[in-house]
User: Fold this.
Amino acid sequence: MKAQIIFFDIGYTLAFTGEVSVRRQIATKLQLSEKETKRVGRLIMTHSAESPDHLLSEVSQSLPRLSKDWIHDVLTELWRQQTVSVREMPGAADLLVGLKELGVKLGVISNTWQPAYEGFRQNCPHLDALMDFKVLSYQQGCKKPGIELFETALHQADCSPESCWMIGDSFELDLEPARRLGMRSLWVLVHPERERGVLAEILRGEQPGPDLAVQHLDDILPLLRQQRLL
Assistant:
C-alpha cells in the first residue's frame, strides 16, 4: 500500500537537539540517581509547562532533597539552551518538500518539552509549517514508547495504520510501538552505536525489524520511490 501519511520523530530525525538528552543534562547538573533521572525525565516530557517557573513546583516535589533555587537555576538555563540550540538535520527540508509535492500528508509524533519544540518552530519554521499533524508528549501528557501518542496521531489523521509510516531514529521509541499498531516503519540509523543491542536481536530473529532502514534522510525519498511506496 502506498504511503498516505508519514509521521516523523523530531529529535535526531528532523532536527538536532544536542549531543546529550535533556534528562541526562539535568541529571548531571543536579547529580541525580538513575531512578531520579527517569522520574524527572518523564515529568518534563509530559508536563504542559510553558516556562521554567511553571515546571519548577512539580520538579521540586519530585526532588525534595534538593534546593528549589538550584533546581530553578538549572531548569532556566536548560530552557534557554534548548530554545536556541535546535537546528535542522541535513536533508530534512528537501525530504519533506519532496513528499509534500507527491501529495503525502506529514506529521510529527515526538517526545519533547515546550522549549525544544519552541526551538524547532523558531529555528526550523519551514519544517514545522509543512506538518499537517502534530502530536507532542508535553501537550498530550504521555510519551513514547507507549502507544497512546500513536493512537492519537492515527485518530487525528483519520487513517488506517496500514497507510501510515513512522520514521524515526529510535527503534524502541519510534518504530516498535508503531509496528504494534500496524503502521509501517522506517529506521534512520543516525547513531547505530546506540542501537547495537536491538540490532543484534533483529539479526538473530528474536524480534521483527523495521520495514526499511537508511543511514541518511537523503536516502529516504529514492528508497520509497524504488519500492513503489509513493
